[in-house]
């Protein structure tokens, strides 16, 4: 492992601490009795405190120094005075340990008394301190120059998501996003628990990936010697519990879909699903309005939420628009009653990519998704989907071609999906068989037939309303984040690229190109100022490593770093 100069220095300090008989990673409990926040809110001059956290600033001024300590609730200023810490003749704890052997990022414990500085800042006068964890890597702390410009900010998305632990340390606003995420899930739980719905857990590994139309992840169970799937939804198991006699069940579930990744999709995501017996989708619309209004107020102290340039009002009621009317309004095409061939033609006229594997349901979904969905900024229930789009949904009571289903659109994206659940076992089997035909045509997202679920329905499931709410998207809305990666602690990422091990000559060429991105090969050779042998060897090596590419133009050879 190649260490930077700073990492080498920190390891040398680690060794010196141990030579002084100081354990830089002590095992004993540290008796913290306060936090940075409570120091400020419950301030009392001269109060004795014990606080611990990460050293984030250190300004040494001879016998006295100021520092900043960051804990889970914020920062507090520390004042180190040599004579307070070292009242006897031995001043090594201040002069050697604090001044020379501590670094920014070290975790320390402090015992002291509270006082207010001349400029009015509440501060801990340090009487003693303990090193609790020596940090071996320097933090990427931002610096402000005399002109007020900020440098070295830790704001590269790939680094932030890959090293979320650093992101949380140096970017306080990130921590607030995840605190708010917990407030949101707690608000939902409270809403359901007050209504005596039961929170449950259902299998993540499933023999059949049911409950949604999506491409699953496949794995293998060695002991049973069977293939298993990571769940794409928990719907069918929750409905089995309704069959079993529970009137209301809900689950915050991790679901997995082996599909694309973008700013609103992650292959692993969180969904809350709720099923309530003896209800329908009209009741669920009313309930959803109440729930989301409460969540917005609990998270932001108002039902109005700013998302990008839009102000979204979560106060009930929300408009209710049938999907076929939405398509007619926004495309000019009345697609009600159209078959596959007619819908495919409409799709082509609208400039959509359609193919022979797409049935009626997928075609309507594509038309709405591409031409209508983004237009619904304020919360809007899109209702009454065609039967082909909803194989688990009860037939509409007034129109047998439709189903009793809604999707809630907010800020141009689906936030929730709800059905009056299909409880006719014979109808359910026929719907599954239609999905099987789509699968045979090449639709790799078509549903499997879940024979055990049909058997459960044959025992009888009461009329039931069910809803799924995307928690990640809900948190994005409530925290004004446009990327799903911002609301996941550890979003899925490509494997980290290995650090390049370059020779000195290769480094010279690499650093020149790093600054200029691309330049004529002849100019690069002149600036590198290497012998012909060293130049040829280095250029070939960089090419083999996939670092450098050379392209030919009409007049020159251009060298550039590969992305």
From TrEMBL:
Its EC number(s): 6.1.1.6
Pfam families referenced in this protein's UniProt entry, alphabetically: tRNA-synt_2, tRNA_anti-codon
Compartmental location: Cytoplasm
Cofactor(s) for this UniProt protein: Mg(2+)
Molecular function per GO: ATP binding; lysine-tRNA ligase activity; magnesium ion binding; tRNA binding
Residue span(s) of domain Aminoacyl-transfer RNA synthetases class-II family profile: 181-495
Reaction catalyzed: tRNA(Lys) + L-lysine + ATP = L-lysyl-tRNA(Lys) + AMP + diphosphate
Keyword terms: Aminoacyl-tRNA synthetase, ATP-binding, Cytoplasm, Ligase, Magnesium, Metal-binding, Nucleotide-binding, Protein biosynthesis
Source taxon at top rank: Bacteria
Stored Gene3D superfamilies: Bira Bifunctional Protein, Domain 2 (3.30.930.10), Nucleic acid-binding proteins (2.40.50.140)
Details of cofactor binding: Binds 3 Mg(2+) ions per subunit.
GO biological process, one term: lysyl-tRNA aminoacylation
Enzyme class name: ligase
GO cellular component, one term: cytosol
The keyword Metal-binding is annotated on this UniProt entry: yes
Residue sites binding Mg(2+) 1 per the record: 407, 414
PROSITE patterns in UniProt: AA_TRNA_LIGASE_II
Binding site for Mg(2+) 2: 414
PANTHER family, sorted: LYSINE--TRNA LIGASE, CHLOROPLASTIC_MITOCHONDRIAL, LYSYL-TRNA SYNTHETASE
Subunit structure: Homodimer.
Family affiliation: Belongs to the class-II aminoacyl-tRNA synthetase family.
HAMAP family (alphabetical): Lys_tRNA_synth_class2 (MF_00252)
Protein name per UniProt: Lysine--tRNA ligase
Annotated source species: Cellulophaga baltica
């Amino acid at each position: 492992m190649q260490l930077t100069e700073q990492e080498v220095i920190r390891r040398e300090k680690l060794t010196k601490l141990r030579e002084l008989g100081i354990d830089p990673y002590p095992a004993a409990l540290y008796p913290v009795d306060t936090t940075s926040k409570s120091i400020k809110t419950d301030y009392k001059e001269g109060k004795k405190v014990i606080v611990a956290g990460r050293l984030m600033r250190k300004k040494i001024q001879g016998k006295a120094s100021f520092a900043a300590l960051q804990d889970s609730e914020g920062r507090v200023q520390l004042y180190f005075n040599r004579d307070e810490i070292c009242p006897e003749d031995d001043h090594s704890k201040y002069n050697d340990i604090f001044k020379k052997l501590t670094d920014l990022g070290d975790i320390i414990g402090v015992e002291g008394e509270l006082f207010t500085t001349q400029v009015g800042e509440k501060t801990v006068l340090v009487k003693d301190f303990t090193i609790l964890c020596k940090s071996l890597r320097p933090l990427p702390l931002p610096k402000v120059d005399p002109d007020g410009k900020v440098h070295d900010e830790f704001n590269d998305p790939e680094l932030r998501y890959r090293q979320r632990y650093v992101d949380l340390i140096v970017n306080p606003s990130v921590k607030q996003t995840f605190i708010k995420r917990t407030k949101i899930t707690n608000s939902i739980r409270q809403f359901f628990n007050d209504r005596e719905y039961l929170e449950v857990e259902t299998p993540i590994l499933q023999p059949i990936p049911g409950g949604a139309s999506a491409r699953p992840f496949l794995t293998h169970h060695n002991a049973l010697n069977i293939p298993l799937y990571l769940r794409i939804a928990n719907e069918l198991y929750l409905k089995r519990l309704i069959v079993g006699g529970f009137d209301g069940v809900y689950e915050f579930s991790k679901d997995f879909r082996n599909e694309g990744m973008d700013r609103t999709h992650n292959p692993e995501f969180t969904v809350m699903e709720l099923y309530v017996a003896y209800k329908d989708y009209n009741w669920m619309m009313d309930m959803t309005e109440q729930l989301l209004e409460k969540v917005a107020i609990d998270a932001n102290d108002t039902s109005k939420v700013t998302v990008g340039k839009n102000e979204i009002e979560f106060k009930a009621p929300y408009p209710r628009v049938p999907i076929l009317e939405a398509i007619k309004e926004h495309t000019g095409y009345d697609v009600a009653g159209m078959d596959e061939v007619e819908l495919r033609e409409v799709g082509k006229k609208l400039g959509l990519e359609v193919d022979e594997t797409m049935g009626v349901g997928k075609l309507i979904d594509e038309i709405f998704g591409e031409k209508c969905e983004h237009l619904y900024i304020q919360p809007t229930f899109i209702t009454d989907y065609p039967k082909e789009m909803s194989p688990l949904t009860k037939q509409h009571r007034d129109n047998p071609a439709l189903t009793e289903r809604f999707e809630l659109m907010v800020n141009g994206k689906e936030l929730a999906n709800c059905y009056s659940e299909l409880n006719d076992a014979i109808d359910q089997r026929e719907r599954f068989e239609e999905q099987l035909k789509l699968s045979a045509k090449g639709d790799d997202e078509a549903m499997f037939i879940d024979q055990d679920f049909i058997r459960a329905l044959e025992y009888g499931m009461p009329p039931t309303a069910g809803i799924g709410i995307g928690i990640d998207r809900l948190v994005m809305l409530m925290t004004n984040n446009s990327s799903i990666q911002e609301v996941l602690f550890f979003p899925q990422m490509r494997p980290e690229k290995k650090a390049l091990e370059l020779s000195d000559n290769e480094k010279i060429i690499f650093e020149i190109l790093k600054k200029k991105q691309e330049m004529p090969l002849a100019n690069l050779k002149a600036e590198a100022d290497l012998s012909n042998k060293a130049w040829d060897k280095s250029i070939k090596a960089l090419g083999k490593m996939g670092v450098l590419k050379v392209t030919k133009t009409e007049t020159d050879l251009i060298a550039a770093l590969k992305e």
